[in-house]
Task: structure prediction
Amino acid sequence: MDHPGRRPGTGTGNGFGTGNGGPRGSPVPTPTQSTLWQELPNVRDSGVLENLSSDQCKYQESMFEVLTSEISYLRSLHVLTEHFMESRELEETMIIRDRKTLFSNILKIREVSERFLKDLDERIFQNVVFSDICDIINYHAKHNFPAYIDYVRNQIYQEKIFTELMKSNLQFSAVITRLQESPQCQRLPFMSFLLLPFQRITRIKMLIENILKRTKEGTKEEETASKALASVSKIIDICNTEVGKMKQMEELIHISTTLEFDKLKAIPIISQTRYLEKRESSRKCPKERLSST
Result:
């Protein structure tokens, strides 16, 4: 549907319907045929393109891409939550604990995306030409995007439980395979949907870098874009650190189950200050060296 087509009673007055930001039952945003800002009917009809330089148009497009890519991302989140997570047939193949681990806080992630998209939608379609959106990105990076940290922290357990279920639970494997064949999955495997959040936060950083590259030096917009980039980069750095910590913890747990102290005094292996420094493996004698900070 061309802009500003939307379903009655959803979204803002000018944009793509995004719902009220609620975690459940929110309408899926309607995709637009126009992926470029200058191709929107209201932009073409306004005559504003005749007064903008090529660089100014590229600046508008770089900000508009944040909106269009968020729409695509949110639609994929709806597939993950509504097609997979809310599938009664799939739910019956798992115990509650495994289901909670597999889907983590994805409903919170979806809610964060809905709120973010709503604010972008209201700003971008308030006027034909918009000056900035990086203040919105910076606000959400500080107040809402930390939800991504919790999701990414759980990612190693998601992958582990999914692998185990696919190998040991034939009913789960059969249902997942059938659900993946749905046209709305667009031939993408279930695991690719689980990986979306971390990919999205990384993509947002790249989009901000593109906006910053097209922003005039010494302007308020450049300052705002720099702040947004720093805020999102901080989220990504924390995510990477958390992933590393969880992998180290998994290695320590594995080591603790293989070590035998016999008559010696047992040493507590699992600790926040202990990490695996080196691993050596051979057929006769696998060796592992532990260090503490």
Summary: The longest strand covers residues 274-280. The radius of gyration is 23 Å. Strands lie at 274-280, 287-292. The chain is about 60% helix and 5% strand.
